[in-house]
Amino acid sequence: MPHATSQTSSTSISAPSVHAVVDRLPGNLQAKLIGFDARKKRVSHLPIAVKDTNVLYISPMEQYAIQQFQQIWPRLKAYPVVVWTGVTKAQAQEIWRKEGYDSDPLPSAHTEYVSKSIPTPDAYHRDGKAWMEVPGILPTNQLDKWETFFR
């Protein structure tokens, strides 16, 4: 997806696609969430190359997803690489402040910011020479599956 470029000043500033912060899924979508096992699939490569065993691609505007991962974050033995998509670090920080976070809501030893927008949230775990992918979020009764997935 192409990014909008500001033409209002002498320099062009790349901006992320403008979307409203989504703080919760509508109830009708929440009830239709697909379970972990049906969502999991094997893929050959990551959408944006990252060197690690576990990777989470997420947009700072997906507050509903941030909240889900925050629930399991304290229980993870090692955090995945977090790749914030569609934003610079400064843009992500501004969005987090608007959402009520003082700092990165999903702190990790390895955090990246990429201007490329991809479908998110999307989690990956290295499986031999391939990757196991689990796109989206899970029903609340399956949150423990994230702990197993990122192990």
If you had to describe this structure to a student in words, what would you say it looks like?
The protein has 151 residues and is an alpha/beta fold. 23% of the residues lie in helices and 23% in strands. The chain is built from five helices and eight strands; from the N terminus they run E-E-H-H-E-E-H-E-H-E-E-E-H. The protein has helices at 27-30, 36-39, 63-72, 89-99, 144-149; strands at residues 4-6, 13-15, 41-43, 54-58, 81-85, 111-114, 122-127, 130-135. The strands form two sheets. A six-stranded mixed β-sheet has the order 3-8-7-4-5-6. Strands 1-2 form a two-stranded antiparallel sheet. Strand 1 (4-6) and strand 2 (13-15) form a beta hairpin. The chain is globular. The termini are far apart. Residues 1-18 have low confidence and may be disordered.
Quick structural summary:
By secondary structure, the protein is an alpha/beta fold. It is built from 5 helices and 8 strands.
Q: Which key phrases capture this entry?
A:
151 residues; alpha/beta; six-stranded mixed β-sheet; two-stranded antiparallel ribbon; 5 helices; 23% helix; globular
Which percent range describes the beta-strand content? 15-25%
User: How many E strands?
Assistant: 8
C-alpha Rg (nearest Å): 16 Å
User: How would a textbook summarize the main sheet?
Assistant: 6 strands, mixed
- SSE run: EEHHEEHEHEEEH
Average pLDDT, to the nearest integer? Answer: 84
The low-confidence runs, each spanning 5 or more residues with pLDDT under 50, are: 1-18
The geometry reads as: globular
Kindly name the structural category: alpha/beta
Give the terminus-to-terminus CA distance.
32 Å
User: DSSP helix count?
Assistant: 5
The helix content, as a percent range, equals 10-25%
Q: Strands of the biggest beta sheet: in what spatial order?
A: 3-8-7-4-5-6
